[in-house]
Specification:
single chain, alpha/beta, two-stranded antiparallel ribbon, 23 helices, 15 strands, elongated
């Protein structure tokens, strides 16, 4: 990573400043000529000015022998104090080689990372997570790509720190390497409903769509409350069947009557079902399937994606191993892998659910006594965040600090945030103390980040040189009483102009592993990010990651799937499976 340079390589003279310095030295030398009577003070001044500048160039060149490669040559502020255990290393300044250590009080104010794929964001996140593991802190990391090598690296770092037993992994793309997880099982009915409805895009601009969304919200909350009153655990498959089957609703109504016959939840359920009842041809009251689908049809198909195939193997458990609030409080190392490449819509929807679950967990931790909140703060990392966070993410910024979380948001472009809402973009950029910029791939994002870095007064220098000569005496015959004079004036003039502190083109020219860091909106650093590597012997000794399994208390689930043939006719099941298969397999840039 380091590159020591020889003095003769760096000390190349050129440009106006070097030309002025050499001219000054030359003029001073010329004035020492015995045939040219010069002013001693002027001679000393010219020699001093020229020598001082070239001396500065030599010292700077020697110091550069200890610097690091940089594609853009941006100077850094003095990094500050190095010692202490309450600091995190970000990297090494390219101009001095000194480490930049960020104290926790600044890390708690959150970090924003931007850069195109493959330029060093994962390397930096690994560096931050490794330091967090070493000091016993918790981690909640969401990775927007399904990369087994990233998981193995996470495991090796934890093993090196003696914390491999703290790892919990959510990996629905490979159930054999995943803990079980049920994000809709815990919380009150309104919280569960809010998580599920996070799968639906915002409906604020459409009154009709918002009406159906609110109707779905009421219905889901009513069903969840009834299940809890009857003391049933439930999963995605159970809710899917309840939203699409009149017979399943009647069965739930019957079971709540038996288990909670005097409850408010039973009354609410019966009132809810009554709005779908119509008179049949034979005069009996039945639930109208069409009315039910009008309200819940879209939600059923969305949840069905999580109820079947590989997702179902991970997420249909009635006693899941991963409960996010417990994991955060117990300082576990949670690693979420989203299969965005092969199952982009399903993966993005899962990301939205996990983020919604994280927000609920924050509210619960926030309500705890301060002494019960995690210390040190949990490192919460959202890489490739633009594909799964929603407009409600801005509320997380209001909760994370008091819930003892330090947030890191990673995207490839500013447009990833703007595509959600401009308010979210401003919330993220305005609430992150550290802006860490790797190579940026779009001119728009590069210009936006250059604007955030700010402007400065730049001096444009120009070089001027004047000379004069003369001869005088009583005669013009070269007699000794005659005299000759000659003068040389060298000078630089400059004018001030307002320009970028860092031109946008430099942000596009950053090398791999090189980053600019804006600290607190003021101090700027050009860094090289060190890469964590383990010896071949340690890797072989550690072996491959194996999931930590836990014996969880068993819970009685309603298990509607065991009677699915009684609840869903073959036509409804076939249509549901086809719709879900189409949604989970189709490539889309906009999400569900």
């Amino acid at each position: 990573m380091t590159n020591r340079r020889s003095l003769h390589h760096d000390l190349k003279l050129g440009g106006m400043a070097d030309a002025a310095a050499l001219s000054a030295l030359g003029a001073a030398a010329l004035m020492t000529n015995p045939y040219i009577a010069g002013n001693p003070l002027a001679m000393a001044g010219l020699a001093g000015a020229g020598g001082a500048w070239l001396g500065h160039r030599v010292i700077k060149s020697v110091l550069k022998g200890h610097s690091l490669d940089s594609a853009i040559k941006v100077g850094s502020h003095i990094p500050g104090a190095i010692g202490g255990t309450d600091k995190a290393l970000l990297g090494y300044a390219t101009d001095t080689g000194l480490p930049l250590m960020i104290p926790d009080v600044e890390n708690y104010a959150h970090r924003f990372i931007i850069g195109q794929s493959g330029v060093g964001k994962t390397t930096l996140l690994n560096l931050l997570m490794f330091q967090q593991m070493q000091r016993g802190g918790g981690i909640f990391a969401m990775n927007g790509k399904l990369d087994d090598e990233d998981l193995q690296m996470f495991y090796r770092m934890a093993r090196w720190c003696g914390r491999e037993k703290d790892i919990l992994v959510l990996n629905p793309g490979n159930p054999a390497v995943s803990n079980t997880y049920n994000p809709i099982l815990y919380g009150d009915p309104d919280e569960v409903s809010a998580r599920i409805l996070s799968l639906i895009p915002s409906t604020e601009s459409s009154a009709g769509a918002d009406y159906y969304k609110q109707s779905a919200n009421q219905g889901i909350a009513t069903l969840v409350a009834a299940l809890k009153a009857a003391k049933y655990a439930y999963n995605f498959m159970d809710l899917t069947i309840l939203l699409l089957s009149p017979k399943a609703l009647e069965f739930l109504n019957l079971m709540v009557r038996q288990r909670a016959h005097k409850s408010q939840e039973l009354l609410n359920l019966e009132l809810f079902i009554s709005q779908f009842r119509t008179q049949s041809r034979i005069g009996t009251m039945e639930i109208d399937m069409k009315k039910l689908k009008d309200v819940f049809g879209g939600m059923g198909s969305r949840m069905f994606m999580f109820a079947t195939n590989q997702f179902g193997q991970v997420m249909n458990d009635y006693a899941p191993e991963l409960r996010l609030e417990d994991a955060l409080r117990q300082k576990k190392l949670v690693y979420v892998m989203l299969p965005t490449l092969g199952k982009d819509i399903a993966a993005n929807n899962l990301g939205k659910l996990v983020v919604a679950d994280y927000r609920t967990a924050l509210s619960w931790i926030q309500a705890l006594p301060k002494s019960s909140r995690p210390v040190p703060y949990t490192l919460a990392s959202f890489d490739e965040a633009g594909s799964y966070i929603t407009e409600t993410f801005n509320r997380i910024f209001e909760q994370v600090r008091t819930a003892h979380q330090m947030l890191t948001i990673g995207v490839q472009t500013v447009a990833n945030l703007e595509a959600i809402t401009e308010e979210l973009r401003e919330m993220v950029l305005g609430n992150t103390w550290l802006k860490i910029m790797f190579k940026i791939g779009t001119p728009e994002s590069a210009e936006k980040m250059a604007q955030i870095i700010g402007e400065q007064k730049n001096v444009m220098w120009s070089l001027g040189e004047t000379g004069s000569s003369g001869r005088s005496g009583a005669t013009a015959d070269g007699m000794p009483d005659s005299s000759a004079t000659q003068g040389v004036n060298v000078g630089r003039t400059g004018r001030q102009e307002i320009g970028w502190r860092v031109d946008p083109t430099k942000l596009a020219a950053l090398d791999r592993g090189e980053a600019l860091v804006l600290r607190g909106g003021k101090n700027l650093y050009s860094l090289r990010i060190p890469q964590i590597e383990f010896t071949k012997e340690f890797i072989e000794e550690s072996g491959k990651f194996e999931v930590n399994r836990f014996r969880m208390p068993r819970a009685g689930g309603i298990d509607l799937y065991s009677h699915i043939n009684d609840f869903l006719d073959s036509e409804t099941r076939s249509a549901l499976e086809n719709e879900s298969r189409s949604k989970s397999g189709k490539k889309s840039e906009t999400g569900a």
